[in-house]
Amino acid sequence: MVKDEKKLLAEFQAKIDKGVKIEPKDWMPEHYRKQLIRMMSQHAHSEIVGMLPEGNWITRAPSLRRKAILLAKVQDEAGHGMYLYSAAETLGIDRTEMLEQLHTGKAKYSSIFNYPTLTWADIGAIGWLVDGAAIMNQTALAKGSYGPYSRAMVRICKEESFHNRQGYEIMCSLAFGTPEQKAMAQDALNRWWWPAIMMLGPSDDNSPNSAELMSWKVKMESNDSIRQRFIDRTVPQGDHIGLTFPDPLLKFNKETGHYEHGPINWEEFFNVVKGNGPCNKARLKARVDADKDGKWVREAAEAYAMKHTEKETLAA
Ligand code: BYC
After folding, report:
1. How many CB atoms lie within 10 A of CB 185?
2. Most buried residue, 23, 160, 207, 247, by CB count within 10 Å?
């Protein structure tokens, strides 16, 4: 490493240690840039692919009120994807390239979206558990060192909070409804609990990126620590509405003030991440098809924008 770079690196780390945000035009180590592009693009893809499981229920929502809420939620997720692609572009990558990486399977997206939404109760479970887990992770990311990413997180967390409440409200209605509705809510909790726990990433002893990302304050907390907070917050909410968690070893430890849980099936997690979950192929196909079918819209929008720029130039 040349002397200048050593000095730049020391200044960069000093800024981070002091809590000063890193902005797009500031000097940054190449690996910091690469790690952020990896994580932010994966996050953006998760938002966009994450529209699919819930989008599946828009036409079958049980009332106009539920439909309007679900439509707004799914549109919010599209918006989150857009902020995050824009924020990632500040690091010098083009969104076409990020999408290409998604469509060819080179880039990951969250494991959680490879599970199917079988009943209306799944919409409640996603808002309550998936958005609930996402908020735990994202409120930590909102304090992160890269300015555009942390600022995007602030707005996203506000919207996720609405998503989380609407999901829990659906679960409450079902849990206090008819026996059949309660059984639907319980079945959704049984199917989404473990995948939601896993979406927060592998355990700390198997998380190769964490140490570096935490030293750069991109990640403010480890995967296990966020997972524990999510469990501690969520279990009392389930108890409150009379649902049971599909984990016979789940119990509150009065001494630590935390819930202890049973073993996580990491084999299932890595299998889903590798592309072998119940819906991986369908999710990717839906995105690839949407990209292909939307090509003419993008071309028309570009032509329209070009025509207007020409007109403005001639008028000037
Ligand atoms: N799924 O070293 P680790 C939403 C990969 S969407 C797939 O711990 P890191 C919503 C990881 O990429 C919000 N892969 O990684 C939308 C790495 O592989 P590579 C989703 C996963 O980065 C619609 C390897 O495993 N939130 O809320 O330190 C409707 C080793 O892991 C997963 C985000 O995207 C996973 N779950 O930590 C409803 C948050 N976990 O890339 C709701 C942003 C890990 O080295 N991302 N891997 O080949 C993060 O916070 C971090 O990237 C993670 C992983 C905590 C996910």
Report:
1. 28
2. 160
Which ranges of the chain would DSSP assign to H, the alpha helix? 3-18, 30-49, 51-55, 64-89, 95-103, 121-125, 131-141, 147-175, 179-198, 210-215, 223-240, 266-271, 280-293, 295-315
Looking at the DSSP bridge assignments, the partners of residue 22 are 146
Question: Is 202 a pocket residue for ligand 1 (Cβ < 6 Å)?
Answer: yes
Distance 109 CA to ligand 1 centre (A): 7
Local structure of 260: helix, strand or coil: strand
Q: Which residue's CA is the closest to the ligand 1 atom numbered 23?
A: 50
Tell me the pLDDT tens digit for each residue of 120-165: 999 999 999 999 999 999 999 999 999 999 999 999 999 999 999 9
DSSP 3-state of 294: coil
Q: Whose CA is nearest to atom 18 of ligand 1?
A: 108
CB 58 within 8 A of CB 74: yes
The atom number, within ligand 1, closest to the CA of 35 reads: 22
Question: Which of 209, 219, 268 maximizes ligand 1 atoms within 8 Å of its Cβ, making it the mutation to test the pocket?
Answer: 209
2-52: pLDDT as tens digits:
668 899 999 999 999 999 999 999 999 999 999 999 999 999 999 999 999
Q: What is the pTM of this model?
A: 0.95
Give the number of other Cβ atoms within 10 Å of residue 186's Cβ.
19
- Cα distances (angstroms) measured from residue 182 to each of 60, 125, 163, 167, 204: 19, 13, 21, 15, 35
Q: Is 47 in the pocket of ligand 1 (CB under 6 A)?
A: yes
Which long-range contacts does 269-273 make (Cβ < 8 Å, 24+ apart)?
269/111, 269/198, 269/202, 270/202, 272/111, 272/114, 272/195, 272/198, 273/108, 273/111
The Å distance, Cα 43 to ligand 1 centre, comes to 7
